[in-house]
Write a structure and sequence with these properties.
The protein is of the alpha+beta class and 531 residues long. It folds into 4 domains: 1-110, no CATH class; 143-154 and 260-319 and 328-350, no CATH class; 158-257 and 355-360 and 426-436, no CATH class; 362-421. The chain contains 8 helices and 29 strands. The chain has helices spanning 27-35, 104-107, 197-209, 362-391, 397-418, 433-436, 451-464, 498-510, and strands at residues 2-10, 20-22, 38-48, 53-56, 68-73, 80-92, 95-102, 112-114, 117-122, 143-145, 152-155, 161-167, 190-194, 216-223, 242-245, 255-261, 285-290, 296-299, 317-323, 329-337, 340-342, 348-349, 355-360, 423-426, 441-449, 466-472, 482-488, 492-494, 512-515. The strands form 6 sheets. A 6-stranded antiparallel barrel has the order 1-3-4-7-6-5. The chain has a 6-stranded antiparallel sheet with strand order 15-13-12-14-23-24. Helix 4 runs antiparallel to helix 5 (397-418). The longest helix is centred in the last third of the chain and has 30 residues, at 362-391.
């Protein structure tokens, strides 16, 4: 049995599970709060050390509303101890046995130092977008498109393209055109560009009429900005609107480059504006890019960085580059993404552009290509007939028959070729419905979790902060009203009895929330900004 010089019974929101406690800047502020909550005061009461019980000179019903205790023990000089009232036992109408347990957090709050420890979770002191990306084990539900962030298209449809014809040989003088060399890959074609399909058809007709359909190697669609300089070809019908050429030894090939910027409004689906900004980063939201042909790439907003002011997640820019090859070798890639100015590796190929087919008139081409030989042969056959008659009227039949036979053969060949249908040339399987629908584009969509799941995550972060998984000194006094800390094998030093020190460490390892303002204790609806 020992004496306790002073004992005060209080009513506070503190509970013995120590999941939540009050934070005080100093011992004076702590004692002031405790003094303001005293209900009963006693001196020279008896104390049973082995059961942590003191006999209170009060009838039990008069102190039932007390749940906390503060006392000074003569064995510890003037130090104040704080504790939880665990149980009250009726002795008689004048006495009640009060069993209590020391609150080690409040009792030794200013006697300990929390050293760098492995912090599993805590409230951050930097909640800027992209500053907290450690994965969270939370249910996210289905992703939906964020309607408050409009889609952005990077199109390459009919209005953004033109027709191109690759020829192996130019039919007209080279100086009739202005030549433009582009690119870095060797080739040997000349490329014609056409603003309209009708112009392209006329050019095919010109080649057929001239007997040179074989000059046409391919017909396909290319981005309009490949042809940069429009030319005039002496007003000839069926000639290209644009032209460029390059030969293998010049190591040039056509290419183009353009760009687009995607707007980010930092909201989730259903216009939900989260309190915890981690919800504005992956995996809670992301930018989806689709080439409308089955390929999709997902981009994290927090990996984009404005090259001018260093802003995270607002500068979202993509570059599109391609060459005027058949089908189009075109790639769209992010800029200043993951610290890379031109992040080619994380780009997305744009859908292939159509490859066209054309027809050639077999009869016209054959007649044009063989016209001279046919004429010579015809004259020769006629001459054979005439000679046969003149030299041997009686035996001229042989020459006549030979000449007639040759003419008949020639006429037969002409008739045979005139009966041939036009032949299909080039590719016949263009397979580009998306192009025909005007949907050949890179489509950017803002994706996020649904509002219901965002609210669940927001509430969770309000209470327990973010996953941290770092060795550091836990954050303290950095929020307006409360902060949570959970450690693993916390490191704490101080002049504290070993049994109490272990309880303090257990509280940190189990997770503890400190509340700055007692009037807001356990009130998660109040603001809790970083201070």
């Amino acid at each position: 049995m020992a004496n306790i010089s002073k004992v005060y019974l209080l009513n506070t929101p503190l509970e013995d599970d120590m999941k939540n406690t009050l934070y005080f800047a100093n011992a004076s502020a702590q004692q002031t709060y405790m003094n303001n909550n005293i209900i009963k005061s006693y001196t020279n009461v008896s104390y049973q050390r082995d059961t942590s019980t003191f006999r209170c000179p009060a009838q039990i019903d008069t102190i039932r509303n007390c749940n906390y205790i503060m006392f000074q023990n003569t064995a510890y000089s003037n130090k104040w101890f704080y504790g939880f009232i665990k149980k009250m036992t009726y002795v008689n109408d004048n006495f009640t046995d009060v069993e209590f347990e020391v609150d080690p957090i409040q009792t030794f709050m200013f006697d300990i130092t929390v050293k760098p420890s492995f912090v599993e979770r805590e409230h951050t002191n930097d909640d800027t977008i992209g500053s907290n990306t450690i994965p969270e084990n939370l249910e996210l539900g289905d992703y939906v498109e964020t309607e408050n962030a409009p889609e952005k298209k990077f199109p390459l449809g009919r209005t953004d393209t033109m027709y191109c014809m690759a020829v192996t040989q130019v039919m007209h003088p080279i100086d009739a055109w202005t030549w433009t060399n582009l690119g870095h890959i060797p080739d040997g074609f000349t490329y014609y560009g056409f603003d309209s399909l009708s112009d392209l058809k006329e050019c095919v007709k010109v080649h057929n009429k001239a007997g040179h359909p074989d000059y046409i190697n391919s017909i396909f669609v290319v981005p309009s900005n490949v042809f940069q300089n429009k030319v005039t070809v002496n007003g000839n019908v069926g000639m290209p609107d644009y032209i460029f050429s390059y030969k293998a030894y010049t190591t040039y090939t056509p290419y183009f480059t353009d760009g687009t910027t995607v707007t980010n409004n930092n909201l989730l689906a259903e216009n939900y504006n989260p309190r915890n900004k981690k919800l504005l980063s992956y995996p809670f939201r992301y930018l989806q890019a689709s080439n409308m042909n089955g390929s999709v790439a997902n981009y994290h907003y927090e990996y984009f960085k404005d090259p001018l002011d260093g802003t995270i997640g607002d500068y979202i820019h993509f570059t599109r580059s391609g060459v005027a090859s058949i089908g189009g070798d075109i790639k769209v890639y992010p800029n200043h993404y993951k610290g890379i100015q031109d992040n080619y590796d994380e780009g997305l190929s744009q859908g292939k552009l159509p490859v066209g087919g054309w027809t050639s008139d077999v009869f016209t081409n054959w007649l044009t290509q063989n016209g001279v030989n046919i004429a010579i042969g015809f004259v020769s056959d006629v001459a054979s007939i005439a000679t046969g008659v003149a030299t041997s009227p009686a035996g001229g039949g042989v020459g006549i028959v030979k000449g007639i036979s040759g003419i008949a053969s020639t006429i037969g060949q002409v008739y045979e070729h005139s009966m041939q249908p036009p032949q299909a040339e080039g590719a016949t399987n263009i397979g580009n419905a998306t192009y025909d629908w005007g949907m050949n584009a890179i489509l950017f969509k803002h994706m996020s979790i649904r509002k219901q799941f965002a609210q669940v995550a927001d509430d969770f972060f309000d209470m327990f902060g973010y996953a941290t998984h770092r060795v550091k000194t836990p954050n303290t006094a950095h929020r307006q009203n409360w902060w949570y800390t959970k450690t693993i094998d916390c490191n704490i030093t101080g002049n504290v009895p070993n049994d109490y020190m272990n309880q303090i460490k257990d509280a940190y390892n189990s997770g503890i929330t400190f509340w700055r303002n007692p009037s807001n204790f356990l009130n998660y609806s109040v603001s809790n900004g970083i201070v």
